[in-house]
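User: I'm writing a tutorial on reading structure tokens. Could you give me a worked example: one chain, its sequence, then its tokens, then a sentence or two explaining what the tokens reveal?
Assistant: Sure. Here is the example chain.
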Amino acid sequence: MSKNSDNGYLKPDKKEMIIIILKSAGVVILLDHFFYRSLWALIFLIPAGCAYMILQIRLQKDRKRNSFRQQFKELLMLSSTLQRAGYSVENSIQKSYRDIRYMFGRDSPVCRLVREVSSAVNNRSSAGQVFINVGRKCAMEEIEDFGSIYEIAYKKSGNMSVIMDRAAESIIQRTEVENEIYVSISKSCFEMKIMNMMPFFIMAYINLTGRGYFDVMYHNLPGTVVMSICLVIYILSYAWGVHIVSIKA
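And here are its predicted structure tokens:
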């Protein structure tokens, strides 16, 4: 897949970026409080916060990609219905815009995609190439494959509506399977989040019930070394958990 920019299709907006930055800062403060309780340690924990922020941006893009996938599926279903009613492929996609905008909002990725396709059709450019470009930029094989089939069908000048209808049906089925996988993985992600927070809940509970229990671990070299080892183990475990739940069939 292409590593080009997605041109804003999947990029977190300002509100989402502010939330991600605040969460990353919160992670740094949380780690400092439980492992070091030192203002100086905050400086050394900044890379961990940056890594967490990068990870959250990637996960946010994955969530948007899955949402875009479902939106594209709805577009194909609407387009296929209109094609069976006699509309051409291009017109069926353009006619679907009103329903798509009502379902997902004007600023949704699928509405932006339809506007780009409409612009290409009006300018007598290749609509199929629009799908291919967007699919590559967003790393979405469904959209790229649809564009490739569109280009082939258009150049062959065959029964284009029938070909695209069958292609849409195949892509819809594949998208539904991928969504089931995504939902299954999401459940595992939720369980992982709970397990990731358990050490902090346990430490907080011990702090509440036995004040000063962990004081021996702070502001001295042996305690700092032990807590640093624990922190490294925790970060590696967290990274491994993220890797496991990120594996897709």
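What the tokens reveal: Residues 10 and 62 are 8 Å apart (CA to CA). The chain is about 80% helix and 0% strand.
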